[in-house]
User: What shape does this take?
Amino acid sequence: MPNSNDGNFNYLNRMSCNTEAQLQILTPTQPIRLRTRFIGIDPDNAVIFALGSDRHWLAAKEFITQGQGVIVRIINSDDPEANIIAFRSKIKTLLNHAGRWLIIDYPSQLQSVALRQHSRIPIMVSASLHALKPDGYESKPISSGNLHDISIKGGAYVGNLIPGCDADQALQLQVKIEQSLETIAMPITVKNIQLPGDDSNECQYGFSINSDDDVDAEEFVQKVVLSHLMQQPKS
Assistant: This one.
């Protein structure tokens, strides 16, 4: 599991202006997700983002105040390694006279992963498998468990035994993203099955991701990895 280190902070400090970012405002009821752009950085002091004006930003206006907790995700898709940086922070201030900027405290801890650098990224995220039916997929899972690793090509799922499941069977993988209270899904094909050992009643299903669009597959994996990163304990 990647840990915070000087290299991660150096990467953040060299981040290019206009890099895509996502903010999650931690409200008392439901988190609010906002899209924005990275503007700049004052190392060890503050990180600056563009202050948006769309309906999502307007809906979040009352929560965008000094001291409000936020989760930040920066996805540098222009980098050959597709680095993802994630951290928790608090809003420092809003600036409107020099530009529409949202300034947050510089993080004390970072989580980072290079999506394309690893053939498989070790994770632990709750997931479920769903059977195919003529008009889509069953809403009730045929197996509940966890994703143990993931890549843009496939991964490993460990969960309840699926009676009659064979290699090359098409299923749907669903993952609940706890931080944003959403469920994402991706069609998969089972490639191999490891039956339970003496000390376990769960099977491991190796799978490939079935997507005609690499962008869709990459976005799915990014969300899964970010969910894993942000559920790690923070000091």
Q: What stands out?
A: The chain has a mean pLDDT of 85. The chain is about 15% helix and 45% strand.
